């Protein structure tokens, strides 16, 4: 005799989990990788998204047993945004604020789905603060996924609670983050909110924080051995309920999964791998600033010249279309580097994890988005840290000061947003050499390789992240018992 879902106890039936990622590839990718972890552990897994985000999701899902359900994105009349703006990729400048605000209109369709399917849990992005109340209507717990590790979560919580930034007299005066192990110093220019942000953005972040406090807990994209002090601090001192289930990028098991994440790569992956195969181990530096960062031409030129001057082979990802004019390239640069087999430029989207995991890659210049930082750590790479915005300055500090696998390029402020001088080629050259050649590079690389080993152990059966997954499931089952 088969039991209906209603009569079967939560302890003896397959649990069903909804995932609701924010519409940006830096959020979609780790959320789907997390969903893959749940699917691989035998849970029924459903991802909710909008029609124009569906291709990014299905590409990342790959062969995993995950159902995708779509709900309609509000119309341009409702949002004031141009037609087709369903992903942050399609936005320019401060359109992000109306975009974030318009997602509240998804509340009704999401609630309809929740009512129909009655999942046991919804894991929703921090940018959907209203999802906690939506889920509560149906007695469903909501967990927040920011895609971050414990260190940035702790820094954010301490800055928000103690407001040390209110006690300094300028945007550049350093302050100590209170009640945080490790004497972490920051300036106001390194916080997720800068003077360029208006009250509306602050309000959105406040709402996100409030909904996090009311939620069932937080999932960290991290593993215990990487940051035990901050994992303990977050739970025990700051009193937050959290599970560490990462690194989620390790759910990409084969080349196909590593190559198809988020957007379609703008190069032939085989051509890129063939080029890497011709290089010595640890000899190529990979340069990429995440899914959204763009630089002015003056900065791109300095990066090109710094790469060339460093003498290192490189793969450089530039968020430019190949159809755009190429004023950002110094004269004769491609002839002297790419044509000589010393460099590879990807204009658009790179298969990042596939590249990072190739044995020829020996260093990573990163904007320190947490996903990139984690992917670099999992690949055992020394990194040049070049934070740009959001919580990236926190992540950069983690790499340079806590795990000590990063070397700072020296940026101190949100230069992308605030203007300012580009980082000069000499500075870039020096940072590249520090992570690629000599005793310091070797020392950093050894540390980085140890971290990569620990990461792999954490997600294997019996590892800390594997076990914390069991704790989460036990919590969920006992909740309803
Ligand atoms: N990414 C990629 N190819 C690119 C740029 C980014 O695969 O050309 C992926 C990268 O591997 C990471 C995500 O996009 O998983 C970016 O997330 P991150 O947190 O590093 O930065 P964000 O884009 O959110 O600033």
From TrEMBL:
Alphabetically sorted, this entry's keywords are: Glycosyltransferase, Transferase
Q: Which InterPro entries match?
A: UDP_glucos_trans, UDP_glycos_trans_CS
Lineage, top-rank taxon, reads Eukaryota
**What GO MF annotations does this protein's record show?**
UDP-glucosyltransferase activity
The record ties this protein, via SUPFAM superfamilies, to: UDP-Glycosyltransferase/glycogen phosphorylase
Which Pfam families has this protein been placed in? UDPGT
Question: What are its E.C. numbers?
Answer: 2.4.1.-
PROSITE patterns in the record = UDPGT
Tell me where the transmembrane regions lie: none
Q: Which family does it belong to?
A: Belongs to the UDP-glycosyltransferase family.
What this protein is called in its record is: Glycosyltransferase
Specify the species.
Vigna radiata var. radiata
């Amino acid at each position: 005799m088969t039991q209906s879902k209603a009569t079967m106890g939560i302890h003896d039936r397959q649990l069903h989990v909804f995932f609701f990622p924010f519409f940006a590839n830096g959020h979609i990718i780790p959320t789907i990788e997390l969903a893959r972890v749940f699917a691989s552990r035998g849970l029924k897994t459903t991802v909710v998204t909008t029609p124009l985000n569906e291709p990014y999701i299905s590409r990342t899902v790959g062969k995993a047993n995950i159902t995708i359900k779509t709900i309609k994105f509000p119309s341009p009349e409702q949002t004031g945004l141009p037609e087709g703006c369903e992903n942050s990729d399609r936005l320019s400048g401060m359109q992000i604020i109306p975009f974030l605000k318009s997602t509240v209109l998804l509340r009704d369709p999401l609630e309809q789905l929740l009512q129909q399917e009655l999942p046991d849990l919804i894991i929703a992005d921090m940018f959907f603060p209203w999802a906690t109340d939506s889920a509560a209507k149906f007695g469903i717990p909501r967990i927040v996924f920011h895609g971050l590790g414990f260190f940035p979560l702790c820094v954010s919580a301490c800055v928000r609670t103690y407001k040390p930034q209110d006690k300094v007299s300028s945007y550049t005066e350093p302050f100590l983050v209170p009640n945080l192990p490790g004497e972490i110093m920051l300036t106001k220019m390194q916080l997720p909110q800068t003077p360029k942000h208006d009250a509306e953005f602050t309000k959105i972040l406040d709402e996100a924080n409030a909904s996090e406090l009311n939620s069932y807990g937080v999932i960290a994209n991290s593993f215990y051995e990487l940051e035990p002090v901050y994992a303990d601090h977050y739970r025990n001192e700051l009193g937050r309920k959290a599970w560490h289930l990462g690194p989620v990028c390790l759910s990409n098991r084969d080349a196909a999964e590593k190559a198809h994440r988020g957007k379609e790569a703008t190069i032939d992956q085989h051509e890129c791998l063939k080029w890497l195969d011709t290089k010595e181990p640890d000899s190529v530096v990979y340069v990429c600033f995440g899914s959204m960062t763009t630089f002015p031409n003056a900065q791109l030129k300095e990066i090109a010249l710094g790469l060339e001057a460093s003498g290192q082979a490189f793969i450089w990802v530039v968020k430019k279309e190949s159809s755009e004019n190429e004023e950002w390239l110094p004269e004769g640069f491609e002839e002297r580097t790419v044509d000589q087999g010393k460099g590879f430029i990807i204009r658009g989207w790179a298969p990042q994890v596939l590249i990072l995991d190739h044995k020829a890659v020996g260093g990573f210049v990163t904007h320190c988005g947490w996903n990139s930082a984690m992917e670099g750590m999992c690949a055992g790479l020394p990194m040049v840290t070049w934070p740009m915005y959001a919580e990236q300055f926190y992540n950069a500090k983690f790499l340079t000061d806590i795990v000590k696998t990063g070397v700072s390029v020296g940026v101190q402020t949100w230069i992308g947003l605030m203007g300012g001088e580009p980082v000069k080629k000499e500075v870039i050259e020096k940072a590249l050499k520090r992570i690629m050649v000599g005793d310091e590079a070797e020392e950093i690389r050894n540390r980085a390789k140890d971290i990569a080993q620990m990461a792999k152990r954490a997600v294997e059966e019996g590892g800390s992240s594997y076990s914390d997954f069991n704790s989460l499931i036990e919590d969920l089952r006992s909740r309803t018992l």
